[in-house]
Amino acid sequence: MVTDKRPSRKPVPIVKLPSRPHGDARQPGTQVVQRVSLLLRLITANHRHGMRLVDLARESGLERPTAHRLLQALIAERLVLQQHQSKLYHLGPALYEMGLAAAPSMPLRDLCHPHLMSIAEATGDTVFLTARSGFDGVCVDRVEGAYPIKVFVLDVGRRRPLQVGGGGVAILSALTDDEIARIGAANAPALAEHYPGHSDADLRRRVLHARRHGYVVKDVLEMQGVRTVAVPLRDPRGQPVAAISVATLSTRLDTTRAAEVAQIIRRAVTRIEQQLREGA
User: Fold this and answer.
1) Per-residue confidence (pLDDT) for residue 85, from 0 to 100
2) Is the pLDDT of residue 256 over 80?
3) Comparing 50 with 5, which gets the higher pLDDT?
4) What is the tens place of the pLDDT at every residue in 32-49?
5) Range of the domain at 219
6) What is the DSSP string of the chain?
7) Which of 103, 159, 161, 235 could form a disulfide with 187 if both were Cys (CB 3.0 to 4.6 A apart)?
């Protein structure tokens, strides 16, 4: 989303989830777990604005009474909460508590956040931290710069196939060709359904550029006139676990400035990777 921060009364778009294969639904209890997981992922993807029951039922493919029953059970367990006036569903406090317990000894987001702030201050643009989660990239942090036109490519918690965003492609560029092919095969149905503008040939060009120059430059598929530059972030074993990207208007990110912004990101990534090695 590109915004100049002025309030808008336009309807809030629903973030849809790519289709994912599930386990064997014939196993006892598996179907319920899958349905609950899907509802939680939908609410997570739309946590900024919340979701209505009718939208949750439609996007999950569940009957409204079934969705409502499961949501009430989640509310009782504090995994979901419902706003009294708007009736919108949001993530509940129990999930936050679980997340704190599950966090590693050196949480990547906490480690990176001061560096994201420095990048945002230096560039004036919006900075994102994307972490790898299986075949997807998940936005785990976002910091806004001072430039008055904000580019909100991702909300925190948004999940997309690795091939879609600049951060995801940066992560792919640091993987082997065999691993990229494996991820491509797994994500092919979701890309065809939800991201028709995706091109495997373009992906190969971006990956090759990143391997040569150390950063990715990519136009945003879902948002015309927006461009990102991203750098992969590796753990102490050398594996890409995340990427830091800057998104802004294409007119602000020509070839020369993309290289300058990439250098700013790369300096931050070098410091983060050093901190990760010291904490390993």
Assistant:
1) 86
2) yes
3) 50
4) 999 999 999 888 877 778
5) 103-279
6) -EE-S----SPPPPPPPPP-----TTSTTHHHHHHHHHHHHHHHHTTTT-B-HHHHHHHHT--HHHHHHHHHHHHHTTSEEE-TTT--EEE-HHHHHHHHHHS-SS-HHHHHHHHHHHHHHHHSSEEEEEEEETTEEEEEEEE--S-SSEE----TT-EEETTTSHHHHHHHHTS-HHHHHHHHHHHHHHHHHH-TT--HHHHHHHHHHHHHHS-EEEE-TTSTTEEEEEEEEE-TTS-EEEEEEEEEEGGG--HHHHHHHHHHHHHHHHHHHHHHHHH-
7) 161
Taking only the tens place, the pLDDT of each residue in 128-175 is 999 998 889 989 999 999 988 777 777 888 888 999 989 999 999 999
113 within a domain of the structure (yes/no): yes
Domain final residue, candidates 77, 101, 125: 101
